[in-house]
Amino acid sequence: MAGLKEACGVFGIYDMDGGNVVPSVYYGLTALQHRGQESCGIAVSRTEGEAGNICFHKDLGLVNEVFHEDTLAKMQGDIAIGHVRYSTTGASVAENAQPLVLSYIKGTLALAHNGNLINTPELKWELIQNGAIFHTTTDSEVIAFHIARERVHTKSVEEAVLKTAKKLKGAYGLVIMSPRKLIGVRDPYGLKPLCLGRRGNAYIFASESCALKSVGAEFIRDVEPGEMITVSRNGIESNKELEKKKHAHCVFEYIYFARLDSTLDGLNVYDARIRGGRLLAESHPADADLVTGVPESGIPAAKGFSEASGIPFGLAFYKNSYIGRTFIKPTQKERESSVHMKLSVLDPVVRGKRIVLVDDSIVRGTTIANLIHMLKEAGAREVHVRISSPPFLCPCYFGTDVPSNDQLIASGRTAEEIRDMIGADSLGYMEIGCLEDMAEGIPLCKACFDGKYPMDTAGVEEGSFCSPVSKKEK
Predict the structure, then answer these.
(1) Is 222 helix (H, G, I), strand (E, B) or coil?
(2) 177 and 125, same structural domain?
(3) CATH of the domain at 407
(4) What is the 3-class SS of 415-429, one letter each residue?
(5) Alpha carbon of residue 451 to chain centroid
(6) Contacts for 403-410 with beta carbons within 8 Å, 24 or more apart?
(7) CA-to-CA distance for 195 and 211, rounded, in angstroms?
(8) Are residues 327 and 216 in the same domain?
(9) Residue whose C-alpha is closest to residue 185's, from 246, 111, 101
(10) Whose CA is closest to 294, among 220, 380, 201, 361?
(11) Tens digits of per-residue pLDDT, 182-210?
């Protein structure tokens, strides 16, 4: 039950046979729903006839809440993009839902963005200096305005996108729709995921490969860090002018964010989490009778821990999937009550036993403390907590909702002090040196654990990308 939230999920499709792609976007966004539950949207157009006449619908809520059969029936086209959002910049209001649709002197464009920039103030100032008058609340809007401005002075939309991307500093997975082209761009470090798929003569961009499976598409490959891919009637064109030698994939995609059935940059997420659990068992063994995981995020690592330790694995919690999200509750007391409503202990499984409880992370410590209390109330003799990530010590500036240091339970505290605060009988974190083994050598961004950011973050306000209204206690 993670307290962290991803920024967003993006999806884009262009069917060169002219078929209606809106149902595919709907199913693709549903597959990416885990990446954002606050708002969603779809923008669609036709590449022939009245090309550039974009129809869009977006609102607060889950995909199946925002889109109904009658709404989808009114949206037709062979090129479309979609977005699911969790706000890390900008308020959680319908006006900030994506895709962003922008009309300008040379036409229209729609944009969906996953990630966060760290140089948004400078980008805004550049627009103001060039006579732009606008009110923006998100870096995604700033990106769209820069593309529109560059498009006035360039021969093609991809040239405008490339010029804009060269100015961006931070993390981004972008899908952009112009009247006759679909463009996918990934930040030079590969902080945010983006992949390319195909179904017949339809080409698809998605944040994760699981979204390709949901629409019957085959995975072609990941968009490489620093790569821009343009899909048009002329086929597929790749541009790698943005690429850098250094890559830094977000470690939490593999620990928690991505869906279990996704593969990111050649690494299967399920395998990575199983491997993480095994490494955790090797570095922090426990004398116990049962290994269990916090649903759903802790279960694969718990299985890996069980396999490596020889301690039997079992489900100790029943999860009620129909309870509302806890982070929307207005008071701490109500949030804690929601945890009890969402999860209940299977008493006969834990009674009289020494339990290893595995989760992906501890942020503030609220949820894990509640779960330990629930297990002991149900008769567990001991609860040994094992965490498949190192302690959070630093904020994230790239689109992960890691709060400022004063809200992180591990900041300024030892593992023993944390163990005492949450009421566990023992506590073990993943060793930071094990993360590379978990990810099989893939270059990772681990800045939330070690403070070593892949780019200069000097001057960026700590916690500036965290929305205090929408943080879920953990």
Answers:
(1) strand
(2) yes
(3) 3.40.50.2020
(4) HHHHHHHHCCCEEEE
(5) 20
(6) 403/363, 403/364, 403/463, 403/466, 403/471, 404/462, 404/463, 404/466, 405/462, 407/363, 407/364, 407/463, 408/363, 408/364, 409/362, 409/363, 409/364, 409/365, 410/362
(7) 10
(8) no
(9) 111
(10) 361
(11) 999 999 999 999 999 999 999 999 999 99
pLDDT at position 462 is 47
Active site residue 8: yes
Residue 463 covered by a domain:
no
Tokens 């869906």 sit on residue: 259
| Residue 471: CA count within 13 A, CB half-sphere | 20
- Examine the domain organization and report whether 118 and 174 are in the same domain: yes
* Catalytic one of 8, 40, 250, 448: 8
- Smallest Cα–Cα separation from 420: which of 385, 469, 455, 378? 385
Same domain, 79 and 216: yes
Count of domains forming the chain:
2
CA 387 to chain CA mean position, Å:
20
- Per-residue pLDDT band at 320 (split at 50, 70, 90): confident
User: Are 224 and 116 members of one domain?
Assistant: yes
Q: Do 154 and 281 have their domain in common?
A: no
Tokens of 120: 């948004």
* Structure tokens that stand for 60 in this block: 């607060």
Model confidence at 399: pLDDT above 90: no
Do 369 and 311 lie in one domain? The reply is: yes
> What values do phi and psi take at 129, rounded to 5?
-60, -25
Strand partners, 117: 170
pTM of the model: 0.90
Radius of gyration of the chain (CA): 22
Q: How many residues does the chain have?
A: 474
Q: Cα-flanking dihedrals φ and ψ of residue 411, to 5°?
A: -70, 115
Which residues is 368 bridged to in the sheet? none
Two tokens, residue 286? 């426990």
For the stretch 51-104, pLDDT in tens is 779 999 999 999 999 999 999 999 999 999 999 997 554 455 676 789 999 988
Nearest to 64 by CA among 96, 29, 22, 36: 29
Do 448 and 395 contact (CB within 8 A), yes or no?
yes
Please give the helix or strand (H or E) that residue 337 lies within, else none: helix 332-342
Q: How far is CA 42 from CA 25, 71, 275, in A?
A: 7, 11, 37
Range of the domain at 210: 8-247
Is the separation of the CB atoms in 84 and 8 below 8 Å? yes
In our burial notation (b when 16+ CB lie closer than 10 A, e otherwise), range 120-144 reads beebbebbeeeeeeeebebbbbbbb
